[in-house]
Every structure is written in C-alpha cells, then in structure tokens.
Fold:
Amino acid sequence: MTPFTVTRSNRSSPLALAMAVLLVLSAAAIPYWAPEDNRSAWMREFVEIACYLVFALMWNLLAGYGGMVSIGQQAYFGFGGYIMLMLGNFAGVNPFVAVPLAAVCAGLVSVPVSFIAFRLQGGYFAVGTWVIAEVFRLSFANLAFVGGGSGTSLTAFTGISKAVREQTTFWMALGGMVVAVALVYIFLRSKRGLALMAIRDNEVAAESQGIAVQRTKLAVYVVAGFGAGLAGALYYLSNLRITPDAAFSVNWTAFAIFMVVIGGIGRIEGPIVGALIFWVLNKFFSDYGSWYLMGLGLLAIFITVYFKQGLWGYAQQRWGWSLFPTQRRLH
Amino acid sequence: MSALLQTHGLTAFYGDAQALFGIDFSINQGELVAIIGANGAGKSTFMKAVTGLVRTRAQQIEWNGQPIGGMPPADIVKLGIALVPEGRRLFPSLSVEENLLMGECAGRTGRWNLNRVYELFPILNEKRWQPSTSLSGGQQQMVAIGRALMSNPLLLLCDELSLGLAPIVIKEIYSALPRICAEGMTAIIVEQDVSKAREVSSRLYCFQEGTVPLHGASSALTAEQISQAYFGMPDKPAGAGAV
Amino acid sequence: MDALLLTVVQGILLGGLYCLFALGLSLMYGVMRLTNTAQGDFILLGSFTAIAAIAGLKWAVPDSVYLPLLLSPLLLLVAFGFGFVLQRQVLNKVLGKDPLPSLVVTFGLSIVIQNLLLEIFSADPRSIDSLGLNTASVTLPGGMALGVLPLFILSLALSATYGLQWLFNHSALGRSFRAVSDDLEIAQLMGLNAKRVYAYATGIAFMLITVAGVLQAMRTTVSPSDGPMLLLFAFESVIIGGMGSFWGTLIGALLLGITQQIGFRFDPGWGIWFGHIVFLLLLVVRPQGLFPKTVG
Structure:
C-alpha cells in the first residue's frame, strides 16, 4: 500500500507570508512616514478598517467555519466598547489596558448567552441572536450612568497627549488585526480546526467520529465573541464617544456579512479581500448615502446568487489561489 | 417487439464515487423482471437513475426509444414510470388518503383511482384518515404501492418491498402483485430475498458492485450460478437465456 | 385587578396584529425552511405602497373616499404577484441545506428596501387615514372600552389563521405544501414542481404581509427603519407558539402582546425589553415552543 502524504502549503504561501510581514511592518511605520497634515486622518481610518476586518474575520470564523450564522455579533461589539469605557471612566483602568480586558469580558459573557442561543438552529438561530443583541442594546440604553439612550464619552484619556493617544491606538489596532488573523489561521490549522470543518460539513458524522461537537461549537462562539468585543473596544478607543444605537447596531453585522460574502465565506483571505473592497467602495461612494447602501445590498445579493463562493473563493476554485492555506491536500 | 425501457452502459455517480459501471438492461411491456444483489450492489441506484433522482447521461436510458436519462423526476413520472421507494418514504404530515392522492400530481389518467386502491388493499380504507406514520410497516408498504399506482404508470418500480417486514406480511404484499400486473402493467422489483424474486419474475438480473455479472430467465438460472454472481466469485458464468 | 384585565385585553388586541406579522414568516419557514429576515421591511413596503397608492388616488379622484377600500383586492393581487416572482426569480436560487445564502439574500433585500423607502419617502413617520376607525371604540357591558380598529385587526388575525390552517389541511395546494416540506425528493417524484409550489407559498405570504402593513399604518405611524423591530416581533410570535402550527403562531403572538403590555405598564422604556426577556426565558425552558408539531 503506497503511503500517502498530506501537504498544506503551496508554492505561493511562503511568498505571501513574506509580503504580509512586509505590509505589516510598513503599516506600523505609518505614524512616521505619513504626511503630517493627513496623519491623524490616516490613522483613524486605518483603525476603523481594522475594526471592521477583525469583526468580519470573527463572523467568518463563526459562520463559514463554525456553521453558525449569527445576526447578533454586534452584541459583543457594543459590549466590548461599553466595558472598555466603563473600566476606563469608573474603575480608573488605563484605556489601553482596558481594551483586552473588555475583549475577555465579551468572551466570558458569550458563555451564558450561548445557553440560550444554541437552543435554535439555522435561520432561527440567526434571528435569535439578533433578539439577544437587541436585549443588550435596550439594557444599556436604560442605564443612566453611561448616558442612557444618548450615550457618553470616554474621559479616561485626560492627561495623555493627542499624539500619544492616536499612535498607541493605531498600533493597538494594527496589533489586534495581526493577532486576529494569526489566531484564526493557527486555530484552523490545528486539530480543533479540522474538527470544526468536519462539524460544518456533517455534524452527525463528526459526532460519531468522537468529536465533541457541542464543546467545539462553544469554543468557536466564545472566540468569536472575544474577537467582536476586541473590535468594539478598539473602535470606541479611537472614536471616544459611544451610543447604544450605534454600538449595538445591526449594521456592523451587515457590513461584516457584506465583506465576507463578497470576499468569500469560509476562507481566511475572503474577509481580507472583502474588507479591502469595502474600504474602496466606502471611500468613493459613501457620500451617496442610501443609494450606496442599496448598492451594497444588491451587490451582496448578486454575488450570493451567482458567485456562491465569493470573489476570492471563485479565484481559489478557478485558479487554485491560496495565501493562507488551511486545506489539506492528499497526495 | 421493442423494449419499453432500456439502458445502455448506464453509469451513475454520487459525487466523485461511481456506483454504476455500465449497466445494460431491458424490459418489454408486460414483463415482471427482478433485480437481486447484495447491499451496495447498485440496485437502488439503478432505480434512482431511471426515475431521475440520480443524474445520468441522456442516451443511457431509453423509454419507448426516447432518451430520458437525466430528466427531472417530476417529468419522468409524467411519462408513466412510478417508483415505490426503498423504505416506503411516506409523507409523515399527510394521512393515508392524502398520501395516495399525491399520486395524482402526475396528472395521468388510467384505470387506477382511490376506489381501486382500496379494493386492492381494504385495510387502507379503514385507516384512510389516520396519519400515515401510525400504520404498521406492511400497511405503510401498501400505501406506498398505492401511491405509485395512483399515478397510473406504465412501468412500476418496486424497491425492496419486503424490507423490514415479517414473512407473513411479505406474502400478503406479494399476493397483490398478480392483480396489479394482470392488466399489462410492466414491473421491475428489487428484492433481497432471492427465492421470492425467482418466484414472481420471468427474468432476473443479478447486480454486483455496480455491474451485472448475470442475467437471464428466472427458471433457467441455477442456484449455484446465482450465488456465484451474487457474491462476486472470480469465476463468473455467462448469462443464460435470451435478453 | 381591573387594570390587569385591561392590560391583558390590550395585549390580546396587540397580539392580533403581531399574528398577522408572523403568519407569513411561519408559512415560508414551514414550507421551505426559509427564514425571511426581510419580513418586517416587506411589511413596511406594503404600508408605504398603500400610502402612495392612496395618495395617488386622492390626487386623481379627489372626491372618492371609499375608492381605496374598493381597490384593496387589487393590492392583494399585486402582493401575491410580487411574492410569486420574488420566489421564482430570486429566492428559489438560494434555497438548500445551507441556511447562509438565503439569509444573506433576505438580509440584503432588507437593506435595499429600507434605503429605498428612505429615499422615496424620507424618514418622516406616516400613516393611513382610517376614517376614524382608529379612534372609535365600543364599550363592553363591564365598562371596558375597546378600540374598533384593534378588534377588527384581531378578527382578521383569527380569520387569517383559520383560513391558512384550513388551506393547509383541506386543499390540494395545502397538501403539496406539506409534501414538499416533509420530503422534497419524493414530492418531486410524485410530479410536483417544487419551484412553483414555493412560489405559491410566498405569494400567499406576501398577501398576509401586505394586509399587516396596511393595518399597522392605520393603527400607528410607520417609518422606513421600523422593519427590524417588526421582524423580531413576528419571529418571537412564531417561536413562542411552536413551529409547524398556525394556531400556535396566533397564541404566541397573543402571549407576546400581553407580555409587552404588562412591561409597558411598569415603564414605557422596558416594554419591548420585557417581551424579549420572556421570549428568551421561554427559549431556555421550552425551546420547541408551546404547541410544536412533529417536525416533518
């Protein structure tokens, strides 16, 4: 019997890794080489897109790999933002330290939430998570000490200069983005990741092979909650002003869905490609307000109907492109 | 006399896995042909291919000389081919009578209607309003047969009628076959029970791992030939009897 | 005690409208396992279409007050056609074992409709003139006053539920709905054209959606961003009642209405929140709902 070998990398992946490292290093230096008058704006925009990307990556992990389509991840986004703000404003915690703490809190709160959410499956799970997000929103909107429905501001930065605040926020966002990508990539290459894909393909078969389905799904849900909380905490670190309607808005998930679907669900490169496309579209068309959003919606519908795999997925299928290979090939 | 149904080198796949490796089959109007073989031999796949549940190439299946391979199931039943599926597969939300009425969706007219089905299987008349899932296995099999008959087919395909049924129930079911076929109905039955298959059919095909190593007149084939073909003995005898 | 009774009754009346929100959702999920996340937005589309149509009629034929009423069957026909075409041309293409494509498409439709309505009608709340129905009331022997419009809505909800259940249980179309829902493969084997059956289901769902939209606009004001809230109410009604039963959806809607009204009595800000919380609690305690049918 001829021995089989399993390979994961392909020719382009070491090259892609080198390119990625280069990109990250040059991005990290933006505070130094960006033009003086635009520096602030560049950094803020970068932080914003980093938050979108992290949120989208986590949504992709949950839906594309975990098979759990959620329209309620904004619950953890807003929760992360509010906890970061509360730790900074009321517990005297350094806001930069508060960000990872808030992310951990978001991960923790996702555990009891999962007891409720996991009662539902498929499409009803999706809407159920939306209900839960609404409960989060209404709860925070009724808390007077964080400004109720009108929201409040992050005041914990008094004493820190604007330049230091902006730069540190920027680096944290860049770091968060790298960590998120690395985390997802390593997870998916691990045994847990393989288990996850088995569950996604056929839950019953996976269970019969001894995979702890419920525990793996919970693990993914918690990681996704943590990631969403991280994105939210970072976003409001930069934005400084939080309101419940914005923090818990379903638009976060809508944009994540858009990015992932356009780029390609279930592939790591997908959200990255989608985020880039989204950023470009945003830059040129967001002035068109409602028409722009309508266009996004129609584009997402069109891609889902005719290009189920998204644009990157199409490229992967057609030409075998892969930057972050997680598929194992049998030889 | 040209055959009612013919297959030429029929191949079928489940995804990448090949299940049928070139089946040649034919049946004439009014015949009752049996297909036997072990589990996984491809018998049900063959039935699914003929009824459009599994895709095949157009020329590989001919009905009255016309290629029908790959046509959607809804169109094939309208041509007059009806399947009694393996495992019955009644509609759980529907009552007995409603299940039977589903056969009318094919829109074909003919001798079979509700009354005749109730004449054939009187017990169903008693239970007509009960949910189909409340019936015993044998009674469910009767409903499945009745449902197929309601589409007034020219060719009836029966996939493993005796699956999971007690011998006395099997006898009862099979006693209905002559009455069904009396008016010229053509039928193919898939059977695990070889002796039963030989008993009711005029010709028989033995499937083995997606091929047909043996076929011929049921009376002419010996038990030894059949068991060799069934289990895939290396020494495969040639088919005996005319096709 | 009197106040509690009044609250419960008001809740029941509110639930009548929620039932009409929910029936279309229940129907589409029941027949084709499709979760229509744009349900609320389609309801609003119905509201605004009616508002625009009435405004147009008023401009064309200013003296006729009852013309809109006479033409309402036409609106229902248009709604049926819209749903039928939507299912055939768009939704049929994304049905399957994977729930994601249909979710993305309906979610995309939700965003498109919301923004389209926003562009055409602006964010101002509007309503339909119900010719005094929304303020008229009848007084029961015990002294309780009930609104005529809410009573009318409740009776419509009861009729619609009864009608839908009857359709499912006693008509050939209902039989085909149940068959494709039970076993799509075998239903096709019988000769059913699944794509057409689905389209009929969605067509009927949209008739219900339009009725709900018109009534909502009569009862209160509507604005383009209301969609998600209506979807969640519809969804909660379906889940509380239990999937697979239209009467269950009605009961679920009534219970949701009552729960919200009780919440409103404590504090206007917590009314909807209370409804959500009770829904989630019920999900933990009895996830299959109160009146589940065996899943086919």
